[in-house]
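Hey all, sorry for the wall of text incoming. These are the two entities for the joint prediction.
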Amino acid sequence: DAKTTQPTSMDCAEGRAANLPCNHSTISGNEYVYWYRQIHSQGPQYIIHGLKNNETNEMASLIITEDRKSSTLILPHATLRDTAVYYCIVRVLDYGQNFVFGPGTRLSVLP
Amino acid sequence: SAVISQKPSRDICQRGTSLTIQCQVDSQVTMMFWYRQQPGQSLTLIATANQGSEATYESGFVIDKFPISRPNLTFSTLTVSNMSPEDSSIYLCSGRTEEAFFGQGTRLTVV
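and here's what came out:
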C-alpha cells in the first residue's frame, strides 16, 4: 500500500508557482521522499528526491517539513507542459525495494 | 539517468494470442521491473526481472501468464500470454539505480 496521501487534483495558472503537497506521516527515518510525474501517454519521469533537507534542481524544489511528515513539490513557473499526474513516493534507498505508486495528484496548468 | 527503449510502443492483438514486449537499457542496471497501468489507474508492479534467474512476481501475477526473461543486465522481455480484453493496459519497463527510470510504455489493446 502507498504510504502517502495527495490531493486528487489541482489547478495552477500558467507562469505561477505550483505547490503540490504530500502527507507521509508514517515515514521512517531511513525513507526518502521521491517525486515523479507522468505526462499523458508517457512513462513516469523522475523529478527530485530528498531525505530531510530541502532540495532543488533544474525542474523543481522539494520542501520537507522538519518532522518529515509532509513535503511540498514546487514548480516555480508552471507551464502548460507541466500538466501531468504527480506521484509522491516514500522508500528506503535500497535498489531492491519497489516504488509503490499511489493515485497521485493530477495537476492542470491553465492558460 | 539511463535511457530505456521499449517496443512495441503499441499493439492491437487478438484474444488468445501472446505478445512479447522488449526492454533495452542503454547502460547496465542492477534491477529491472515490469509494471502494468490499467486505464485511468496508477502503476502496479508485476514482477522484478532477475538476471539469469526466474523473475519474482507480485501477488496476483503468475509466471504462466506473464513470463519474463532477463538474459543480461541491459535487456528484458515480458510476454503477455493467452490474452483477453482484461489485459488491455499500458505495460512499462523500469530500471533502477538510486532513482527509477521508465520506458515510454507499450499500449496493448486486446480485441
